[in-house]
Amino acid sequence: MQFGIPRRELLKTLPLAAVGATVAGKAAVSQVPPQIRSTLVVYFARTGNTTVIAKQIRRSKNADLAEIIPVDPYPEDYKETVSQASRETEAGYLPPLKPLTVEVARYDTLYLGFPIWGMTAPPVIRSFLRSNSLAGKTIYLFITHGGYGLGSSIEVLHSHLDGAKMQPAFSMEADQERRTLEQVTGWLG
Ligand SMILES: Cc1cc2nc3c(=O)[nH]c(=O)nc-3n(C[C@H](O)[C@H](O)[C@H](O)COP(=O)(O)O)c2cc1C
Fold this sequence. Notes:
Layout: H1 7-31, E1 39-43, H2 49-61, E2 64-67, H3 78-91, E3 109-115, H4 123-131, E4 138-145, H5 153-160, E5 165-166, E6 170-173, H6 177-188
Parallel strand pairs: 1-2, 1-3, 3-4, 4-5, 4-6
Flavin mononucleotide (FMN) binds next to helix 2, helix 3 and strand 4.
């Protein structure tokens, strides 16, 4: 006996109670109107400086977040990445991208973030712009660099974003992988 109910009787009621709770739970969920999420933060990053900003925008704007990821990852080695990125930019190569986890067309406001690579936007950003029409959308750029400024990135972005409502960009100097590597190498001797 538990609380005056015979154990056998109590056990009989349990599955029903569980089903009832599930049904009630489902009904409650389906009655909640879908949250309108019109802002997307979409970004590319290698070492994570741009990711920190992307996640802060996501939190502050209650936005969705999506990372731009190339099908073929860039080399782990910094210098090899610099050479490859430079070759790709010169050739106008558009690296294939993994499918995004969201549908860009569903959003009316985009925060688009990336690091400066070779004084311009990384090749994957051009790939992203080529495969997604952003005309009519409100676009905020956020850009990190290692101390050499924005180069031609803003002009390049504007030339690919015909018809988009461009807003003032945010940019900041952040840690530079090369500088970090040099300092650590010096320490390691
Ligand atoms: C391939 C490559 C090229 C870079 N080229 C530049 C550059 O031209 N000018 C600059 O200021 N920083 C340059 N950087 C440094 C990055 O822009 C900077 O460290 C940025 O904050 C990295 O962002 P992330 O951590 O989100 O990848 C380069 C970094 C890499 C990996």
